[in-house]
Amino acid sequence: MTEQYQHKARKRFGQNFLHDAGVIDKILRSIRAKAEDRMLEIGPGQGALTEGLLSSGAQLDVVELDKDLVPILMQQFSAMPNFNLHQGDALKFDFTRLNAAPGSLRVVGNLPYNISTPLIFHLLQNAHLIRDMHFMLQKEVVERLAAGPGGGDWGRLSIMVQYHCRVEHLFNVGPGAFNPPPKVDSAIVRLVPHQTLPHPAKDHRVLERLVREAFNQRRKTLRNTLKALLTSDEIAEAGVDGSLRPEQLDLAAFVRLADTLTEKPVVG
Ligand code: SAM
């Protein structure tokens, strides 16, 4: 029995290890790592994806939180000159440490589902460094990421991610591909940061605040949910119908509202 099989999956680290060779291969074929690529894998676990990424010749840094997995990963991969392991929390990892050229970093991960949303937001703070991201996430989260306006999936996550990235829902993965199997379905998503933002906001922190406020009560009209930030006249000035509900607005309209708020004179 190898050391690999002695590791007991830990729930608190969101450990569901991929074991289906067909699924692993399909993910690797979607990523298409090349020798000249600069890659970062979040949560390599026992190396299910790591092995294929390294064999492409790409320079690969991995960030793994679970100290007990470090010897397992080192035993498998430390002899490879293109492998570099960081033990620690990806949510606190400073991606600029990697010295990747702007627009070069390719990020990959079968993510622990409990940290997937904060991790995506953390990565988006360094969107200018990133060429693309391929993640395994809970299927519902991928549906929210890829959603368009008008439905229940369209919300803060869809808007803030689509502000920065093009989103592609690539394929779904059932629980049987993992050990232990998770209780939910999963999916692979590709996020590609825009080289030029299609709808740049004057201040993206204002956009974040406005979107959060708007979706706090998604059943109410914009006029109501945004009451503390914009008057009905200001909403109309932004070219938005205040009687709509937040889920009916597209990204461009949210940016117009945010810009109206940014330019609003401070009273008092
Ligand atoms: N990539 C492996 C695979 O596909 O089999 C493991 C995937 S498992 C769903 C998630 C991995 O992320 C685990 O190895 C877990 O220990 C690690 N992890 C959990 N929280 C983390 C964090 N905050 N930072 C870095 N890694 C983390």
How is this structure best described in words?
With 268 residues, the protein is of the alpha/beta class. It folds into two domains: 3-193, Vaccinia Virus protein VP39 (Rossmann fold), CATH 3.40.50.150; 204-263, Orthogonal Bundle (Helicase, Ruva Protein, domain 3). The chain has ten helices and nine strands. A seven-stranded mixed β-sheet has the order 4-3-2-5-6-9-7, with helices on both faces. Strands 1-8 form a two-stranded antiparallel ribbon. α4 (116-124) links the parallel β5 and β6 (130-138). It is elongated and about 65 Å long. The chain binds S-adenosylmethionine (SAM). Residues 13-18, 42-45, 48-49, 63-66, 69, 89-91, 110, 112, 115 line the site of S-adenosylmethionine (SAM). It comes from Pseudomonas abietaniphila. This is Ribosomal RNA small subunit methyltransferase A. One of its GO terms (molecular function) is RNA binding.
